[in-house]
Structure formats: C-alpha cells, structure tokens
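Request from the bench team (R.T.):
"We need a structural guess for the complex before ordering more manganese (II) ion. Sequence and SMILES attached. Just send the tokens back."

Command: build protein-manganese (II) ion structure.
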Amino acid sequence: MRERATISDAMSSTNRTLFIADLHLAEARPLASGRFFHFLEDIAAGADALYILGDLFEYWVGDDDVDAPIARQAAERIHALTAAGTPVHFMHGNRDFLLARRYAGSCGMTLLDDPVVVDLYGVPTLLTHGDTLCTDDRSYQRFRKFARLPLVRGSLLALPLGLRHALAKSARAGSERAKTGKSCEIMDVNADAVADAFRRSGALRMIHGHTHRPARHLATIDGKPAERWVLPDWYGEGGYLACTAQGCELLPAPSPSKSGSATDS
Ligand SMILES: [Mn+2]
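Reply to R.T.: structure attached below.
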C-alpha cells in the first residue's frame, strides 16, 4: 500500500476522492470514452477512491450484452484502476439502472445504493444520481418507481437482447421528445426535495449529477450549512469533482492530446 502511494504521488495528488457522473458512454461517442480512459489513467490513478454517480453509459440493456465493445473497454480500464489499488464505486443512473453485479465485478467496482451517505474526510456526504430530486417531473418519478420494481426489472432482463436494444432505442427517442416539453434534466431539482434529503440524511454535503448543471450551491437548512455539488456531464469537455479534507473543487477533464476541445456529434 505504501509502495503504491509513493508511485502515485508522482502521477497525481493523493488523499483525494473523485466524483464523476453522466459520461453517457456509447459506441457513437468515441471522444467521450477517450477522455474517460485518459481521466482514469492520468487523474484517477492514485486517488483514495473514485465514485461514478450514474449514467456512465448512454444506455444499458443487461450485463449479458457482452458484445458491446464500449462496455468491454470500459471494464478493462476501470479494472486496471481498481487492480492498482484505487477503489471504484458505482451508483446507477436513469440510463444504466440495469447494470448489475456481473458487470460491476468485471470492473472490480462495488455497487452503491441511491442515496447513500459516506464519511468524506469527516464530512457526512450524501451521494445520489440526482433524478429522485427532480420531483416536479411526476410522470418521470412514476416511471422510475415502476421500472425499478424487481419484477419489472427481472421481466425486462428476461427479454431477448435484440428486443431490449429496440426498447432502449425507443426509450431514448421518447426521452428526446419529452425534453422539448418537460424533462427532469431540464426542469432541475426541486428545492424542497433537496432540503428533505439533507434533513433525512443528516448530511452536510451532497454530491449528485443528472441535471448536467455543474455548480456549487450553498444553503442553510435548519440552521446547518448545506453544500451541494452538481457534477458536469461529459458531452462537452467533461469534468470531475475532487474532494480532500480541505474541501471540494470542480475541475475540467484534461483532453487527450489529439482531440483538443473537439466534442462528439
Ligand atoms: Mn441521469
């Protein structure tokens, strides 16, 4: 352990924990995966831990979809990080909630419940993907509850792979249409839902993604400080939150040298 820390000190600063979300990796978005792999090697190596707070993938139809190259590549790269001693924790997003133990195991990463409170260098910190905070979007919240019932989940996974791909495609098309009207990702979080989450958990800090509105929000709830960090998506340059005992900061993901500031179409 000490030996590894010495090696990684030269690569990146240690004693910090990193958070990312909403990478939306897909075959059609090679620049995002290139950035992510570069991030794993150059930034996450040597960190105390990496938390992926949902929507690592644009969609996920089941761990048995073993032919997807992006899934295989991501598993290899994440596994290299965990094998080198940096624990990786994964929480489901709304796009990849079917990701299960088999795939997580192949990455060497642990699955987290949503929400969960972790002790982050002494600060009780609530981690969530963020979609449950978008309570103004009632139809989405009904769908979310339904889709995650064990029976529904199980029935979905029992469908032939081809049919699951077709369903995922139509769900993405439907969500694109919905965004022009109302969508959780556009409507943002509900302030009362945020305050409730702080109250119920006793956390002083919250970290989430989903809304694609990176920011640091400071509030006082019941006389206590409440710090909320929103993670960026990786449709553009991408980015991450780095936390130490001193606090957190949002940082851009470094571009792999060739692609510069280019983005996927
Ligand atoms: Mn999401």
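Two things stood out. The longest strand covers residues 215-221. Residues 22, 54-55, 93-95, 129, 131, 210 surround manganese (II) ion (CB under 6 Å).
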